[in-house]
Amino acid sequence: MKQSHHGVKTRGGMAARPGSLGRSVTGSRQGGALGAQAILLLTVQGLFGVASALSGTFIPVYLWKASQSFMLIGWFTLGQYLTSGITFWLAGKWVKEHHKMYSLRLGIVLSGAFYFTVLMLGQQAKVYYVPLGMLSGMALGFYWMAYNVVYFEITEPDNRDRFNGIAGILGALSGIIAPWVSGFLITSLQGERGYRLIFTISLVIFGLAVVGSFWLANRGVQGEKYQWFLGARQLREKGNPWRRMFPAIVTQGVREGVFMFLIGLVIYIATKNEGKLGNFSLITSLVALISFWFVGKRLKPANRRIAMLAGTIMIGLIVLPLFYKVDYNTLLIFGIGTSLFMPLYIIPMTSRVFDLIGHSEESASNREELIVLREAGLIIGRVIGLAAYLIVLSQTQSTSAIVTLMFCVGIVPIAGWFFIRPFLSANNKFR
After folding, report:
1. Which domains does the chain have, with CATH numbers?
2. Where is region (Disordered) located (predicted)?
3. For residue range 17-48, what is the model confidence (pLDDT) as tens digits?
4. Residues 87-112, mean pLDDT to the nearest whole number
């Protein structure tokens, strides 16, 4: 990777000072404090998270109730993952060369369109599961491509852990309130009427997120062209730090590929009650809120390595109670344990990836391409995890097989720690 001299102008048109890569004048402040733009981005993300949590938690359940098919949900999710990855790659050009806020807003609007389509289709959603997965994937691709670029531009190494801690708190708050409300409404209004109401509420909140995005500043472009295959060149270059970081990201994706949709479904199948799923989300998200607050406040560069190792080990081992019995109580133990230890893993993981993107002037100027490279790692990992799910579930749908699958993908991030550990020390400069 080429190194450029300090003082070269960045895409925002401002000269970058030594040590200030990725810094935005309006987005961050000295001493790790968050500026107005960072707070506004967290607000938009909070609204997006609430709208998604209201309905997204129950989409797998909704499809399951309509189809009674594990495989259908797997193919829906595969369409979502693959389309989001392709959309990320294509949207990178738009975000780099034109107006990134259009991509952000389009992602929010398409998310609303997805839930509106499900609302209109009703029980017939089971017929269009692949197109629905692709529509959801497009929405996620456009939104997260722009979000990650804006996040990079308004944060810097000394406040990214803080930002990610607050983002985790907001996600936990969304998980506390939204799914519980959804579960209560679905059970109170007896199913279909409840689903229609929560999908409608989600549409309104997505609209508020679009309105809020108009106050986010769009840093100007400087005429650089989007490099379609920069990520592949990074991975081919001998000694490039991305050759260690990329497989670590893949391991994160392997776990996410199964856990992002399977847990809520397993809880519903075990309890046959959406309200119980809402209560599960409320309890585990409350634990996550406290954990993200504590870890975000206490995590320092000096203790990243041991903290992340502890987190990766524990989020794998916490699956073990499910080998004894799969019921609401053991699932709740699993959920609480995951919420407790996940911040130890995900905060340093996310922060160090974005620190790597901003470690040099050259790298920071190619942030869009490198964010696409990060997403490619996540998508590859998610597809690997989902492929394991589809293979296992095509052979057997026994409880023991599902729990074994959860354990196997749950311990994969431990391998990721071995790849990323050289970058977790306080004085590492990605050499």
Report:
1. 30-215+232-423 (1.20.1250.20)
2. 1-28
3. 223 334 443 444 444 667 888 899 999 999 99
4. 92
